[in-house]
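Per-record layout

source: Methylorubrum thiocyanatum
name: FMN reductase (NADH) RutF
length: 202
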Amino acid sequence: MTVSETESAVPVDASAYREAMSRLASAVHLITTDGPGGRAGFTASAVCSVSDAPPTLLVCVNRAASAYAPLIRNGALCVNTLGEGHETVAGLFGGRTPMDERFAAGTWRRLGSGAPALTDALVSFDCRIVERHAVGSHDVLYCAVEAVAAAGQADALLYSERRYRTLPRAPRGGSAPAEPARGARAIGARPPEGPVLALRSA
Ligand SMILES: NC(=O)c1ccc[n+]([C@@H]2O[C@H](COP(=O)([O-])OP(=O)(O)OC[C@H]3O[C@@H](n4cnc5c(N)ncnc54)[C@H](O)[C@@H]3O)[C@@H](O)[C@H]2O)c1
Ligand SMILES: Cc1cc2c(cc1C)N(C[C@H](O)[C@H](O)[C@H](O)COP(=O)(O)O)c1[nH]c(=O)[nH]c(=O)c1N2
């Protein structure tokens, strides 16, 4: 395979890496924690499913984040996946806002670990941190999922090209859209909350 002049590769410093990463669309989550280390939370896109046996997620957290010390001390966290209408709370948890103001922007409950679960999240994963690895500026937190709850009925919130977008849900009663998805659309009002559904608990 050959690479043309206009498509030539560039050296990868942090800036080129971020620019490249900005092209990826990702789900948006609030990572929350509470316990002896205090209540804290931050916005995260670096979240990934690792295994279903046992159910395990990974979360990458910058060690410079104000939530880092509370997360490690508490050893527990909740991954709250955001939907349409959550862009303001995503911005608040994205940094430089006092923790009380961040949490005042949402309504919360607890699922077992003690970490706050956002009541209208698309889904909340209540977790214990079982392992962590330092990689560069971040720690990779491996999290055993002890309970899952889903309440929000909104379209998914995505982060792509440094802005929030939404992805329409599949029609009710079907697992796939009737037509091919026509792409993400602009953010509008959030639909009313549906009933809380506890999907699974440890
Ligand atoms: N994984 C992360 O730590 C991460 C992800 C997204 C945004 N952020 C932070 O949020 C702020 C706004 O970011 P933006 O998306 O508007 O523009 P940006 O240019 O800082 O980031 C573009 C993309 O690069 C990646 N990225 C950014 N900072 C990173 C880091 N420190 N480590 C690993 N990957 C990183 C993310 O995928 C991000 O969407 C910045 O301060 C950024 O550092 C951090
Ligand atoms: C959309 C989006 C996505 C992410 C972030 C930001 C935004 C806006 N941030 C940055 C993180 O939210 C921010 O650094 C923390 O809130 C720490 O800020 P404070 O130290 O609390 O002010 C972030 N940080 C991190 O450690 N891991 C991640 O996956 C992400 N993802």
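summary: DSSP finds four helices and 13 strands in the chain. The two ends are 50 Å apart (CA to CA).
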